[in-house]
Amino acid sequence: MYSLILKDILIQKKMIWFVIGYSVFILIAFNSPDSADAAYIMGAMMSSYLFIMGACAYEGKGNGEMILNSFPLRRKDVVRSRYISIFVFMFFSLAVMGALGAIMKSIGLPYPQNYITMSDVMGVVASLLIVSSIYLPFYYKFGYIRARVFNMIMFLIFFFVPTYLVNYIKENSEKEIIIQLTDILQTISLWQIAVIVMFIMLVIMFISYLISLSVYKKRDF
Questions:
Q1: Rounded to whole angstroms, how far apart are CA atoms 109 and 101?
Q2: What is the residue extent of each domain of the chain?
Q3: Is residue 26 a contact partner of residue 45, using CB atoms and an 8 Å limit?
Q4: Which of 41, 131, 158, 192 has most Cβ atoms within 10 angstroms of its Cβ?
């Protein structure tokens, strides 16, 4: 299974430079007061998702799935390795975004406005695990080509929704539901929130894994 994860990384070595450039672009582009809070979340989340889609694309093209299934590999290990690679790509993207943000601030650039925070990390974890948990069952059911429609929808949603939510909360901070939510969040520590979010996301991801495994076992190659 380790070799499968390593494969997903090695076949995308050129993608690393694109991700670095994309991360710099996001840190610069998301520098307005309305979008700065979503810069790290947007950059790391989309970078991770690009890696995931890239791994699926390489495997889905050129009869890669047929070749992979011709080896003495359990389909369970194939699916499991793809889910584990989500965390590998996520940690790498967070490290790149955090390092670039710190370097850009240390040399005196006016962007980004903040260093990466625990809230940013939680936002990346939650958003990436949700979208990946939805996407992978589609991918294993329909293959990469037909799952591209889902990718386009997810890209649009996760490009615009974070900024919209941040602006909505700021503009409606006096609403009762926002006040109640803020009061609840203030009664628990950030680490408690992180544990709760991680537990929920892992449950969702495990359910997604079971669905993907069931679907993949039934596919003919």
A1: 10
A2: 2-218
A3: no
A4: 41
Q: What Å distances lie between residue 96 and 39, 54, 108, CA to CA? A: 13, 18, 19
The CA distance from 20 to 17, in Å, is: 5
Q: Which of 169, 171, 166, 182 is nearest to 36 (CA)?
A: 166
Residue 202, number of CB atoms within 10 A of its CB: 13
> Cα separation of 122 and 214, whole Å?
29
Which tens digits make up the pLDDT trace of 117-159?
888 888 899 889 988 998 899 888 888 777 777 777 776 776 6
CB 51 within 8 A of CB 93: yes
Distance CA 89, CA 3 (A): 15
User: What is the reported pTM?
Assistant: 0.82
Q: What is the DSSP letter of 111?
A: -
